[in-house]
Each structure stands twice: as C-alpha cells, then as structure tokens.
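Loading example: each entry is read as two labelled lines plus one structure line.
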Amino acid sequence: MSGSKFVISREDWSLHRKGEIDRERHREKVREAIKKNLADIVSEESIIMHDGRKVVKVPIRSLDEFHFRFDYGKQKHGGQGEGNSKKGDVINTDPQQGQGKGKGAGEEPGIDYYEADITVDELAEMIFEDLGLPNLEQKKKPELASESLEFKDVRKKGVASNIDRKRTIMEVIKRNALTGNPGLHGIIPEDLRFKTWETTFKFESNAIVLAMMDTSGSMGPFEKYIARSFFFWMVRFLRTKYNNVQIAFLAHHTEAKETTEEEFFTKGASGGTRCSSVYKLALDIIEKRYSPQDYNIYAFHFSDGDNLVSDNENCVKLINELLTVCNMVGYGEIEGSYYYTSTLRTAYKRINNPKFTSVNIKDKSGVYPALKKFFNQTPAQGTN
Amino acid sequence: MNPKDELMLLEDELVKITAKAKEFGLDFYDMHFEICPAEIIYTFGAYGMPTRFSHWTFGKAYHKMKTQYDYNLGRIYEMVINSNPCYAFLLEGNSFIQNKLVMAHVLGHCDFFKNNAFFKATSRDMVESMAAAAERFREYEFEYGRTVVESFIDAAISIQEHIEPRALVKRGKATKKDGQKGKKHNCHSERPETPYDDLWDLEGIPECECGSCKKVKKFPPEPEKDLMLFITQHSMELENWQRDIMSVIRQEMLYFWPQMETKIMNEGWASYWHLRIMREIELDGSETIEFAKMHSGIIQTSRTRLNPYTLGLKIFEDIEKRWDKPTPEEKDKYGRPGGEGKQKIFEVRATENDISFLRNYLTKELIENMDLYLYKKIGHEWKVVDKEWERVRDGLVSSLTNCGHPYITVQDGDFNKRGELYLKHHYEGTELDVFYMEKTIPYLYKLWGRPVHMETVLDNKAVLFSYNGEKGSKKFL
C-alpha cells in the first residue's frame, strides 16, 4: 500500500465515564430546579389530572440553554416532499412541531422548552421530604391485627402435601454426584424437602380522610381545582404513612351529602352556604362508620369562606366537636375572584387548638405552602 | 466471530477500501479507527470530541442521544474527528457490512477535512488542546469551586456562536486598518506608513483639530462581530481564569464552525464516496440487501427537515452529470467540453461551503425533482408556503447564513460614556426569540460587568432591550 497508513483497534473503555458524570450533574440540576419550583409544579395540571401514568413531564425553563436565536415560529424552513407537494399543504400541526425523522444527533429547534421526565413517586418523595404527620396516635390494637400465612422456610420434615419438588430433586442429584454415580435416580427419605409456613400478623393502620368542600355557587372551577390539587397530594401523602387510606367526599351548600369522587370535583351546585351542615354530616359519619379508636381521622374543609353569617357560631362549635375525635382538622379558604370582608376564617381565629390549622390560598402556587402548613412535623404550639 | 478475528477481517477490508479510495483520487490523513461501545460513541457525539471540558449541557445532550439509542429511535454509526491523524470511532455492534460502509464514508469525510478551503485554518491538534483545556478547567473547579466555574461556563456558552469565523483571514487585513484608525490620527503628518509607527506614537503627537478627526474615537473602531473576543479582551470584570475559559470556548467554536458551515457538502461528499467505493467491493446477496437498507436509511427524507446527506449527495451527482455530459446550451454558453465531472466535483469540494454550494449548484431541476419547498407556521399549522425554485433556493441559503445564528455586533463598548455594552442585531427579516433574548442578556451582563443593551427589530420597529444588573427594560427607538 502506498502512502497513508491506518490503525484499527479496540480498547477498554470501561473507565471512560465522562458522559455519565455530566449526565448525573444534569440530573442533579433537574432535581434542584424541580425542588425550587415545587410550588408551581405541585399544582401542574398534568400531574393532578394524570391518568394513572407513572411518568409525568415537568417543564423546566431554567435548564434551557439560552442564547440569541431566531423566533422559530416566524421563520421559513426547508422541507422535502414525496414528489407531489403543493403550496398550502399542511405538513404538521402545532404540538408535534419540528419532529423530523432525522437520524441521530439532529438539532430540533421546534421543541420550545426542556421537559424533564419524572415519576410521580419521585416527585412525591421530594414534596413529602419536609412533611410529617402531626398528632399521630397509636390506634392499632393487637385485636385488630389480621393473621396471615406465608411460606417462607424449607425444612426436612413436613406435611407430604407441601413437598418442595425442585429442592428434593436437587438433593437427589447432589447426593448421587457425591457418591460418584451422577444422575437422577433413587429418592431416599433424607432427600425430601418440605415447604413450611410461618404465621405473620399484619397490623392494619387505617386512616380516613373526610374531604369536605363547599360547592355553593361562588365556588368556581379555579377554587375546585385548588381543592383537588390539595386532596391529591394529601391522599398520596397519607398513603405513605398508612396501609389503608379511605376518603369520604362530602359536598355541601346549605345542605350536605356524601358524593362520589367524580361528582365531588365536577358537579357544580349553586345556592347559599351553610357550612355547619357538612360538619354535622362528618360527625355523623364518624359516629356510624369510623370509630376514633380504630381510625386516624383527618378532616379537611375547603370553602371560599362566604358562609351564612348567622351560621358561623354554630360552625365554631362543631369544629370543636370534630377536634375531639379527629387527629387533625384543617380549613382551607380559597380567595377567588370575590372578596368578602367577613369570612369563616375570621370566625375560626378564635379556635385555639393545636390540632386545628387554617390556611388561605390565593393562587395555584399556594397549594404547596398549604400542604407544608398542614403537615408540619412540629405541631403549632411546639417550639422549633 | 470473536472480536480479534473480526478486527483482522475488518483490517483486510480496510486495505481494499483504502486502496479503492486512493484509486478514485481521495486524499486523506493517516487513519485511526477505533471500535467503541455505544456509551462512548454517544459521549463523543455529545461533546463533539473524545475529551472536552465538563459541563451539564453535554450531559443533557448525551442523555438525549443515549435515550434515543436505547429506545432504538436513532443510531450513530460513526464519529469522525477532524485531526491529523484522523480519528474515527465505529459503533461496537455494527455489522460487518455496516462497518465497511462506514469506513468508506469516513474516508470521504477525512478527504473533505484535509482539502476543503474552510478547514485550512483549523487546528489539527485539537484533540490534545481540548484535553489540555479540560484539565485546566478541572483545576479551576478545584480552586474556585465547581458551581462558580459552572455558572461562568453557563454565561460564556450563551454567546459562543458569536465569533468571527474568518478571524484569520480578516484579522490579517484588519491590523492594517486598525493601525490607521486606531492610532492617533494626524492630518498634517505626511510620513509614509512603516511597521515602526507605533514607536512614534509614544512621543505623543498631539491630535489635530480638524473636524473629520473628532469623530474617529470609537470603541470598537468598527462594529465587532466577535463578541467572544471583544469581551475576553475588554471586559473589566473578568479574572484571568475566566478569560481563559472564554478563549477556550471561542477556539473550540472556531474549530467546529467549518464543520457546521459545510454540513451538507461534507455529508453529501462522504455519502457519494461510500456509494462509489461500495459498488467496487464484492458483496454477496444478503450483504447487498443490508447495504441497500442502510444506505436508504441514511438518505431518508423528512417533510420538516432537509436531510443533509441526501441534499449534498444529489447535488454532487448532478454536478458530475452536468460537467460530464453538458447540454448543447451549456457547451455553447459556458464552454463546457464535457467529461470533466470528476475534476469538477473535486474542485467544488475544495472551494465551496454550504452557502455557495447551494447558491451555485442547487438548480431548478434539482429543486423540482427533489420536491423541495419552504414551510412556515400559519396559525397552528405548518404549511408549505413556497415552491418557486429561486425563492426556495434563496430561502435555504439565507437560513444557512451565519450557520443559522442571528448576526450580532458590538456597536459600542463605552455606551453612554459609562462603559456600557451596546449590541446590535442586524435584522434581515426574521425576529429574534424575545423570551430567549431576555434570558441571554443577563449572561452578557455577568461577562461584561456593566449594563448591556441590545438593539433589534420587532414588528418593523427598532427596539432596545437593556439590562442593568437588576432588571430588564425595553423601549422603542
């Protein structure tokens, strides 16, 4: 061969970790950015409304690589048809803009901002990091524990019906191999192995959430969405602490009734507001179905605070009653488009019980601080 | 087949392929092929180099490319480095025939790197320079803290495209001009210009009073396109290590620029040669099918993006045809004797870049046969807006101008006589992304240390965006 030379080789690249290291740094930055923006992300619609998907996309603007660039939407771009394109042909519609079938590393300027993929669990972990359950009480009694059987052990003696065939055959093969006559033949009693069970006690720790919401005329879609975001995370959070979390949905205007989750969040109602009705219903349900001795009870009520003034006194009385049976009672007041001078919240200022917390939420980003306030590890009267 | 035998077989093939390439007249550096696992190829792909400084943006790119590979959505078969000797990395797991195609393709790239005029000034030792810079950056991290260095790099790369790629060509002339304009001008002096003029300046010849001289004091004397260089040299804010980072990023951009401005030609040239060379190599039936499959994957077209491989390949083939067998008109009008196809394409690969390549050789017939068009967003839909060949060609050319980046210059480095930085976007019909601009200007503030202004055009009106370290503002001029 004349002139140029060549080498062809294959080396050990196993220590070359550069890409992985910077990838990890990028992931770290994604997590940092999410943490910083939890307040906005907590009430992201794609998460609250997520239809059972495990992974959600969270837009993260701070991880864009900002530089001077043209406005992609105002530029003309080149494309190639299949031979019969005409002026006016629609080649793409907006959501999928710029997704060419290009090979390998192509710049895809169509994507407007960086979206991180994150699992709801991962996100929940970040949100719950600083949350704790106040006033947690030991409810479980040994009588409540349910018994269950689990096959966990293998023994040489046992019930013939529980014989472990695979392990028995292994023993035969092993023994034969040891005696210099390998193969599967001649099972003797020493080879037999049996599966054996153990009795385990499962302690049930139950929690019940009484989700109460004002569905009077003044509660619009925004107010309901806020309540929904809050309940979404609250339920997820309680599930990390209890085996079994049940939710009862109680909607009210001047009268209260128990509804399905679907109705609770979607059905509009109208009319005036009498909050005492829902508290009465709650107490009733607790008495009938959830004994405070067996259940951790969390009662949360969301309203815009526009209650019938004559009813306020009654509400305070009933809240105090609820406090005697519940681990926690929370009241969230959503400040919507209307402004009221005298609201329920003002009336509740008089309640002085560490188990009672009230917050007001003005916009979407108020959900996260509300969660933090309700699930503050150190109860209100505690010192830091 | 075990890896060792495979290497030996590949080596045999490479002898044949290299010999064929030389016979065809390709001229390349010594080659170093290396077979790497996917993680490595994709790392190199994300960084553009085997070793480069660390930054999360590379991690992000790597993550994206690697995920595509893992989900089987995209695949890089090879990665070539413009260096002498030329390094090429092949993906482990390429089939034997894929590797043959890739090696032929790579020789095309290497010939291009070695012979195209726009690569003449690129450093062929960039692998080593980048490795050394990476090492220095690591030391800076150690000394000043990782996040400090990281956030400085964030700022520096936000303007990395704003360099003067013709630096070497232009600066040569500019020194002369600079000498004239920059030095203290004296109308009465009639001394001829000599290389020692700067010595005379030390005497402090008083400036003359004539009216035309008053205006001369400008900084920079002429609008400066190289923002990276201007800031590196004149920012009062930067420490030495920061200037080093700025100049490294600028050097690396200067190195990559020719690859960006010849993407269509380079890929077209390499595809042209892998086709020609593979035609000469014996393939059995199943190999032929695999080769055809892979080649058609490479030249697959898209309605929303031009495939540089296809476009470049078609143009080179067309040039060859038109110079080999010119029409009577071409013979008559341009005096093309015919039979010069090969010679012509070698000449084109040596002298053009994508802009001139398309402007000179993307013909009416090609545009119509390939069904090229321009499309634009109208409402929520992206629609074909132009099929007229000259406008399509010119639209493509203008989208390649400055490698697709807005053209921005430093107008004044002492704006308001307070050392503020005044930049101007030279508007040519396309508006800037305002959200991105408003996020980028603060980075410039970080680099310059004084308020930064940026003039551009929105809705046909000149606008000035400013940032003073605390907040941004916008006013119509």
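Chain A touches chain B through 68 residues (CB under 8 Å).
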